[in-house]
Amino acid sequence: MAPSxxxxxxxxxxxxxxxxxNSGGGIASDYNNLNTPWxxxxxxxxGNQANNINSxxxxxxxxxxxxxVDSCTLVANSCRLANGxxxxxxxxxxxxIAFTNCIxxxxxxxxxxxxxSLGGATxxxxxxxxxxxxxxxxxxxVTFASCFTNNPLFVNFGTGYGTNLLLGAYDFRLQKGxxxxxxxxxxxxxxxxxxTDRTGANQTGNPRVFGTSVDIGCYEYTPGxxxxxxxxxx
Length: 234
Known about the structure:
The chain has strands at 7-10, 13-15, 18-19, 27-29, 38-41, 44-46, 49-50, 60-62, 67-70, 73-75, 78-79, 88-90, 96-100, 103-105, 108-109, 112-113, 116-118, 123-127, 130-131, 141-145, 154-156, 171-174. A hairpin with a 2-residue loop joins strand 15 and strand 16 (112-113). It has one domain. The protein is 0% helix and 30% strand. By secondary structure, it is an all-beta fold.
């Protein structure tokens, strides 16, 4: 019998990674055991690539393990296989994959926009997510709650996909007018009091909840300094 283990990936950035022979440019979970639930939380996946001609899952390849993907932003990732999940591929195996407060937008599979691909028997739950409508579900059981397909309105989408994403030329924080702002699901692990410890803060170190509710994605919108009249004294 396979061992029962759990794991958590917390507050991490996966940028510009790639795999040449396998799937999952950022993370590949190939354990295929329903007794090994794990969590990916508060992470950003930008410009990762599954580069083999048959590779799938540009950012995440999840096989047969119950997984929670929570408050993550997945943008500009790519894979080579058509409908292979430019951001995420979940293979068959009756696993439950739960996405909460996630942005999956502008990812490519075989040069065509494709965010997520699910194998048969997978159970996928999407709660308060911003996910483009270019997906392939292949008989999987899919449930959406409080999700939308609107452009997330990043500060700067940048240029390129996969490992061709120009580093330093993008900014995947939210603009003030983004529908992702204040539209997430506030969860028990979030420190609504605004403590700055990493378990209760987002990728920039700001409080995880700022405003009426948590934001969708790994970045919490916080307004910059106000612009007004400057008075200088001598």
